[in-house]
Amino acid sequence: MAFSFDTRPKVTVFVTQTGESFPCATSESLLQGMLKLGRKGIPVGCVNGGCGVCKVRILEGEVKALGPVSRAHVSVEEEAQGCTLACRVAPLTAVRLEVTGKFEKPFSKGFAATANRVSTGV
Ligand code: FES
C-alpha cells in the first residue's frame, strides 16, 4: 500500500500586499496553509481566533468558517465587506485577499496618506 503524502485538494491563496501566493488545502485555515509552507504575508498571532492580527479581507473567491470569528475583531459591517480572520477560515476556491489587521500599522509609519485614512475611519 502506497503511503500518500498530503494529497488533499488545494487551492491558491494570493496575498495582494506582498504579491505572494501559496497553495492551501480546503480543509485547513488560510493561516495554517501559509505557516506550513514557511511563508509570510499574513500576520500570525494566536492562530486561534483570539488576537485579530490575521485579519484579512477576501477580495475574490470563497471561504468557509472553521470556527467562530470574534466580534471583537471583525464587526458585522466588516464581515459584510468580506473581512474575516485568516486563522478561522478555509478556502473553498482560489482566494485573493488583502491584509487588514494590525500589521498595517508598523509599516505605515511615515506615510501621510495612510495616517489620513486611519483618521477618517473613526
Ligand atoms: S492569529 Fe490570532 S486571530 Fe488569527
Distinct small molecules bound, one entry per kind: FE2/S2 (inorganic) cluster
Q: How many strand segments?
A: 7
Instruction: List the total number of helices.
Output: 4
Strand content: 25-35%
Q: What series of H and E elements makes up the topology?
A: EEHEEHEEEHH
Helix amount, in percent? 10-25%
Outline the structure in words.
The chain has 122 residues and is α+β, with helices and mostly antiparallel strands. Helix content is 21%, strand content 26%. The strands form 2 sheets. A 5-stranded mixed sheet has the order 2-1-7-3-5. It has a two-stranded antiparallel ribbon with strand order 4-6. β1 and β2 form a beta hairpin. Mean pLDDT is 85; it is low at 105-122. FE2/S2 (inorganic) cluster is lined by residues 44-47, 49-54, 85, 87. Residues 44-47, 49-54, 85, 87 line the site of FE2/S2 (inorganic) cluster.
Layout: helices, strands, pairs:
Layout (H helix, E strand, L loop, with lengths): L9 E6 L4 E6 L4 H7 L18 E6 L2 E3 L10 H5 L2 E3 L3 E3 L3 E5 L4 H5 L3 H9 L2
Parallel strand pairs: 1-7
Antiparallel strand pairs: 1-2, 3-5, 3-7, 4-6
FE2/S2 (inorganic) cluster (FES) binds next to loops.
